[in-house]
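Q: Sequence in, structure out?
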Amino acid sequence: MSREGLGLPRGIGQRDYGAMSSTAAAAATGSGSDGNFGGFSPTEFISLSESIAANTIFVKQSWQFLEKANRTIGTAKDNQSLRDKINDIQTGTNQRIGTTTKDLQRLTVVVRGGDKQQKLQVEKLTSDFKQVVEFYSKSQQSIAAKMKQVFLVNASQADDLANDAGIPGTAEQQQELQRQRQLQQSLQFEQDMLLEREQRFREIEANVLDVNHIMKELSNITSQQSEVIDTIENSIGRTVDNVESGAEELVKAAEYQNRYRRKVLILLIVAVILGLVVTGIIVSKLKS
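A: Exactly. Output:
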């Protein structure tokens, strides 16, 4: 079956999964890998964000391929080549998921020196990646269960053939012996195929368990980011409260100043009136 026939995304199924790892991102910006940063790095933030977004699309394409391949397992189009492609895709995608998880952990540390918008952007990247990994993991589990079911059916059919071989016939002994030899060869071939399929099934099952471990790490990253966002919201809330309190104090100060000015103006008017009265009295006495 061709890769295009199953909707295999470009680049999947190859061994070279050239995702930008956290180490490469660190090398691009000169940052160490121990999580210590001298400040917020816009270059590293952009590099990691773009890498995570690209890997999220990659995992989504892998999930879509697994969904399409899942409908082929157990049908006439099911073959070993398809099983090999499924295994290669899951192996490469799990590696990409592991790399992206490390990049998210690093980005969570980098963005601590950024602003609220950048922290919200990281939270969205994590949420989108976690969601597509959940879909991908469910497809893995579905394929593993279906392949196990097909394996059990094939094993049951092999047992039926073996039971039929033990039934004595009424034909000549030489022909019976020849048929038994052919049947034994056929059973040996079936057994080899079953062992090979069981090995493939174990590989896929191991990949599913690996993704489950990744999901726990993503949940921890989401919890850490939620705490950071909550801290930002609390800081913003306190800042707003302080600004409002400061505005109220300014209003009160303006009121006090206006009252003081009115008092001063009234005192000046009274002083002027008293001065005019005294002046009038003095002038009248002088004339008299």
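DSSP finds five helices and no strands in the chain.
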